[in-house]
Amino acid sequence: MVSIEKISSSENKMTFLLKKSTPAYSNALRRIMLTQVPVMAIENIEFSKNNSALYDEVLAHRLGLVPLTTDLKSYELPESDEDIENKKAKCTLQLTLKEKGPKTVYASDLKTADPKVKPVFGKTPLVKLLKDQEVELVATAILGKGKIHAKWSACHVWYNYNPKITINMKADFEKVKDLYPPQVFNKKGQIDEKLILEHNLVDAVAHIKEEVVKVEYNDTEFIFTVESWGQLPPKEIISESINILDSKLNELAKLVK
Q1: Handedness of CA 66, 71, 72, 74 (dihedral sign)
Q2: How far apart are CA 54 and CA 109, in angstroms?
Q3: Are 192 and 186 a contacting pair, CB within 8 Å?
Q4: What is the tens place of the pLDDT at every residue in 207-220?
Q5: What is the mean pLDDT of residues 227-235?
Q6: Is residue 116 a contact partner of residue 143, using CB atoms and an 8 Å limit?
Q7: pTM (whole model) above 0.70
Q8: What's the fold here for domain 39-151?
């Protein structure tokens, strides 16, 4: 059975080891993280005023690409355009913007009806207003998937085979020392496996001289790195993607029967 082992984790980045897997399953999981995990983003905008230097369409595009923190427990994917047009409470969220220049308008100036859903990066500049220029609008945010538009992509993710690294500093090391990236050497001037992995330089050292650094790969273990754009924490993205993949596999099993 497939298992997961956490390697490292921070607020918006997580690295984990996927064991007892296959390339097909691993790639399917990667694609689901990129395209199937739903997050909030602005979809529709109603402008009341906008005499700024940016046309409505340009400002709307900027607003659509602002990452919004997402609460998957409180919202669901719209089933039809009517859900969005009727502003169904379970599917949509209203954000308002009303500003007058002179000033720079930031993402943090958006007023949200739900404090759980707000711009991830409040200092993102939206538009610069000169004296007497105004922007007033109502934006509608909905859940969506990255396969429809990049603004609904939850993260960037990649994986590699889990490497087994064998280092032998006695085998003609001095002759090939200058061929290795400087980042892989520790303070003692020795090649360090931890530094190779930390700087993602496995491929860079793999074929210089196998007698010094030999790299072998386990084709059933994969090291994943997930970088969230901030809408969801990496742990939730991983958990949600596994649930989605399991659901699709169960559905396929039923069809096969």
Answers
A1: negative
A2: 17
A3: yes
A4: 898 899 999 999 99
A5: 97
A6: no
A7: yes
A8: RNA Polymerase Alpha Subunit; Chain A, domain 2 (2.170.120)
66, 45 Cβ separation under 8 angstroms: no
The DSSP call for residue 68 is: B
- What is the percentage of the chain residues whose pLDDT exceeds 70? 100
What's the CA gap between 169 and 162, in Å, rounded?
Answer: 22
- List the one residue out of 33, 25, 8 whose CA is nearest residue 238: 33
pLDDT at 257 over 80: no
Please choose, from the candidates 27, 19, 21, the residue with its C-alpha nearest in 3D space to the C-alpha of residue 241: 27
Alpha carbon distances (Å) from 126 to 14, 110, 129, 171, 230: 30, 10, 10, 58, 18
pLDDT at 171 over 80: no
Q: How far is CA 157 from CA 86, 95, 103, 153, in A?
A: 35, 29, 37, 11
Tens-digit pLDDT profile for residues 109-161: 999 999 999 999 999 999 999 999 999 999 999 999 999 999 999 999 999 99
Radius of gyration of the chain (CA): 24
In this predicted structure, the answer to whether residue 253 has a pLDDT above a threshold of 90 is no
Which fold would CATH assign to domain 3-36+154-256?
Answer: Gyrase A; domain 2 (3.30.1360)
Residue boundaries of the structural domains of the chain: 3-36+154-256, 39-151
Helix (H) or strand (E) holding 35: helix 23-35
Give the pair of three-digit tokens for residue 221.
């273990």
Q: What is the 3-state secondary structure (H, E, C) of 145-206?
A: CCCCCHHHCCEEEEEEEEEEEEECCCCCHHHHHHHCCHHHECCCCCECHHHHHHCCCHHHHH
